[in-house]
Amino acid sequence: MTSSLVIRRASVGDAAVIARHRVAMFSDMGSVPPLQLADALLKLSTSALVAALGNESYVGWLALEGNNQVVAGAGVHVKPQLPRISEDGTSVVTAALPLVVNVYTEPAWRHKGIARALMATLMQWATTERFDRLVLHASDAARPLYISLGFVPTNEMRWSPKIRAENP
Ligand SMILES: CC(C)(COP(=O)(O)OP(=O)(O)OC[C@H]1O[C@@H](n2cnc3c(N)ncnc32)[C@H](O)[C@@H]1OP(=O)(O)O)[C@@H](O)C(=O)NCCC(=O)NCCS
């Protein structure tokens, strides 16, 4: 990690940069939407993030270099869930569940440990807030990083009517 790196909590005023990261993240992950859809995703993500940062259902962090340039970010979308047994099997958890989202490092700043530092900050937050679990959907690029941080694959599956139509 570079010595001038600063990590700070995101505020409502950062919604546009986080939305930009979100669109770039999907693009880097190979799901490049047509320009018109990418534009709609950017606009709708910005307004959704303004609301979610405002009510703290989204908690995010940004990494800044040098002259306050945002070079990376990561966040959690804290979603309501039904009661479940805790990770250690000793209690019933009724708290919302944080889904890690929008993990993105600008291409010129990759392989310097910035995403790792953001994830460490996020994991420290989850520990302090007494969440017993973080969940995420890993890209191929990020999977080794998450595994090295202690994340493990789970039993999540996915279905959609489109997939069913293609594979009857
Ligand atoms: C995945 C992503 C977030 C990683 O960001 P990053 O800031 O480059 O991540 P880090 O530098 O912390 O770690 C990445 C790799 O660099 C290596 N690295 C870290 N510091 C390093 C250094 N000083 N010198 C060389 N390599 C280094 C790490 O070991 C890691 O290697 P690994 O992937 O084989 O485990 C970034 O590539 C990205 O934005 N990708 C596109 C979007 C995406 O996939 N997001 C994740 C969605 S789940």
Note down, in words, how this protein is organized.
The protein has 5 helices and 7 strands. It is globular. The chain binds coenzyme A. The site of coenzyme A has 21 residues, from helix 1, strand 6, helix 3 and helix 4.
Portion in beta strands = 15-25%
Low-pLDDT regions: none
- Tally of alpha and pi helices: 5
Extended strand count: 7
On the 0-100 scale, what is the average pLDDT? 94
Q: Which sheet architecture does the biggest sheet show?
A: 5 strands, mixed
Concise description?
With 168 residues, the protein is an alpha+beta fold.
Keywords:
single chain; 168 residues; alpha+beta; five-stranded mixed β-sheet; two-stranded antiparallel sheet; 7 strands; binds coenzyme A
List strands and helices in order, with pairings.
Blueprint (H helix, E strand, L loop, with lengths): L5 E4 L5 H14 L6 H20 L3 E8 L3 E11 L4 E2 L6 E2 L3 E9 L8 H15 L6 E2 L6 H6 L12 H6 L2
Parallel strand pairs: 6-7
Antiparallel strand pairs: 1-2, 2-3, 3-6, 4-5
Bound molecules: coenzyme A.
